[in-house]
Design goal:
Length: 85
Amino acid sequence: MNAFLESVLTTLQRAVIVVSPTRHVQIWNGDAENLWGLRAEETVDRDLLELEFGLPVAALGEPLQQVVERRGDRPWCTCRARRRG
């Protein structure tokens, strides 16, 4: 199943990061590696908000919590980022 999911994410040609309800990275695809300069081995099983890769992840804390708790409508978050790499 994981191999199938990886192949689907690869065909998207977009950086995809999948996190658990506890904000731990489950999937960090190849496009995320290319965009942010961190390999999956450096990110998987780590708290997303503790990673430093050019995106101000602290701004994602509340929107992620809203999703986990299913509070309100789909949250939006806009932040400035820089390509690291």
